[in-house]
C-alpha cells in the first residue's frame, strides 16, 4: 500500500537530490521504512475526450468527480482499503451498477489472505496468495536499493523546485499539523531530459540494472533477458529520448506538465501530497483508431490529480476484520460452485466467482494452458466464434481457408446475416456451411473478390488478406501517418499496406520474433483466433 504513494513519486525521484530540497530527500528516505499508517487519497481525471459509448461516458463522469481510497495499514502484510466514489450518481443512474446501495469496495489483506467485498455483495470473497513471501521481501529490498541508489546521484537537478513556506494541514482524523510546503514543477522538455538521464544513469550502474531486472513493476524491454540486453534496451531508449524534438512535438499538439506539492512535518514525514499532471495530444493521433474522428477537434486534453493525506505514521493502527462466517474462500468455491449463490443475486463478485468456479478444462485437447493463444482460443470458443473438430482438437497450427476465416470473422464482428445473391464464377465451390457467412461478408463490404471474378473459398488465406478483411469489417480509418517498421515491410502488397498500418497501429497484429509481418504466409488457426480476440477485446501480448 505504501508502494502506491512511492510509485507516484518515482517519476520525480531525482528531485530529492537537488541542493535546495534536502528536506524532501530526508522525508523520502524515511518514507521507505514506513510500517504502519492511515491515509486518504482522491484521484480525479478531467478530459475533453469525445466518447459515444454510454459506459465510457459514465466512467469518465465518475473519474471527473473523483474516486476516494482510504487505507489503514497495520504493517506491510496486513491492511484494509476502502474504495468509494465522490459522486456515485452517474454510475447508479446508468444501470451499470447492479445494486441500490452506493458503489464501494472493501478489501482486507491479512498475511497470505485477501478478502474483498462490494456493497452489492452479501459476503467477502477470500483469496489465498501463493506468492513466495521470501521472494516478495527480496523484491521490496530491490525497490529500496533502486531508490537509494538514485538518491546518491548529484548530476541532475530540476530547475523549478521551491520551498513555499510553513502551512497548516487539516487531516481527516481531525488533527492539524504544521508542515513545510515544497513544490516541484516539471515541463515537457525537462520531463524528457529527466527520463533520458535516469535511464542512462541506470544503464551505467550495475546495482540499478539488477533492480530493473528483478522488479516487474518497472516494465523495461529486455529486462527479462538479462543484464546485457537490458543495458542495450536502456541505451536505445536514451538515444530516442535525446533525439526527440520537443518544440516540434508541442507545435503538433503534444504537451505535458507535472506539479508535485508536498507537505512535510517536523518529523520529516509526508503528511499531504498533491500530484497534478496536465497534458494534451493531437486529436489526429486518436482518430486513427476511430476516437475523435470527425469531431473537428484539434487536441485532446487531460488533467489527472492525486491528493494523498497520511497520519498515524508508524503508530498502532487497529480495525475489525471479517468474521469467518462472512468469508467464502475461492478454494471452497472451486469444490462447491453452489456457494456462489450466498454472495447474493446482485453480486458482481458472485457472478464472477461462478464463472471461475470449478477446475478449468482446456477448451480443446490440443491447446494446453501453456499454449501462447490458450486464453484467446478458449474465450472465442465460449462465445461461439470458433469451433473445433469432431476429435476434440482445434488444430491451432493448421492453415485457415478463406471460407473458414470469413465464417469466424462474421461471428466475431456480430454482423447481421444476409441472403445477398452472389455472382462470383466459383459460387459452386462455396461450402454449404459457409454460404450465409459469404453472403453477409460481401453485403458488408468485407470481401470484393479477385480481378478474375472468383472468391476462391477453399484457398488458404494469407495474413495480408486476413488483416484487410478484418479492418474493413471493423470500419477502421485507413488514412493515417503510421509508419510500418517490419523487417519485410517492402513485401506487403500495396493494396494491403493501409490496412496493415491501421491494424498495427491499433494492436490487432504484431510481427513475429524476427519482426517480420510475413504477408504471404498462410494464417494459422491460432493466429486467426488471436487477431479476432484483439479486434474484440484489444491487444493482448502473445507472439
Structure description:
The structure is a single chain. This protein has 18 helices and twelve strands. The chain has 543 residues and is α+β, with helices and mostly antiparallel strands. It has a twelve-stranded mixed sheet with strand order 7-8-9-10-11-1-2-3-4-5-6-12. Helix 14 packs across helix 15, helix 14 packs parallel to helix 16 and helix 16 crosses helix 17. The radius of gyration is 27 Å and the shape is globular. The N terminus and C terminus are likely disordered.
Topology pattern, helix = H, strand = E: HHEHEEHEEEHEEHHHHEEHEEHHHHHHHH
Strand content: 15-25%
Strand order of the largest sheet: 7-8-9-10-11-1-2-3-4-5-6-12
How confident overall, as mean pLDDT? 83
The counted number of beta strands is: 12
Structural class: alpha+beta
Distance between the termini: 33 Å
Low-confidence stretches: 1-17, 215-227, 539-543
Major beta sheet summary: 12 strands, mixed
The helicity comes to: 25-40%
CA radius of gyration is 27 Å
Please give the domain count: 3
Shape verdict: globular
Helix count, DSSP H or I runs of 4 or more residues: 18
